[in-house]
Amino acid sequence: MTTDALYKSLNYVNHSREKRAEMAMLVAKNPHLIAPLFAIAFTVDDPISCKACWVLEFTAKEDLPYIFPYLTLFTANLSNVHLDSSIRPMAKICEYLTKSYFSKTPNSTQKALTKSHLEKMTTVCFDWLITDQKVAAKAYAMTSLLLLGKKFKWILPELKVILEKNYPEGSAAYKARARLTLAKIK
Length: 186
Prior knowledge:
Layout: H1 3-10, H2 17-29, H3 34-41, H4 48-62, H5 71-77, H6 84-101, H7 109-112, H8 115-130, H9 135-148, H10 155-166, H11 172-185
Helix pairs in contact: 2-4, 3-4, 4-6, 5-8, 6-8, 6-9, 8-9, 8-10, 9-11, 10-11
């Protein structure tokens, strides 16, 4: 499948799990499609980029190592993503990566992620947390930052201050995740 064909097939992807999973399965069977999928995902002003992000999220969920060759590209471009429907899946991928990285069971993510990758994800997660983003992206960012705080000790006090400051104005979902995160910080 060419990049053009991939781009056209993304037009048929919608919010349904079925369509996103179907496309992720196609990518899993054709790993050479991951590079063009990232290229489309990081064409951040194109509405189709959201669909590429959705597929990348499902691909990462199914088999995280598929994205390892692209971690430098991923972390370098995260801060450019600005469409709400692209930020949520990218934040979810960050959560998948950090959960795997900080797993007590040794795994390939711990070898694939570098300090630089982790630092870039930290910066972007804080940005998502302090800017006007949807609750899901903020929730995934909270989880990622909580875990990243195990490696970078300065994160937890900063995260605590931000959550306590934003708690009164947060939605019910934000407050629920913030309470859980604050409880784990203490």
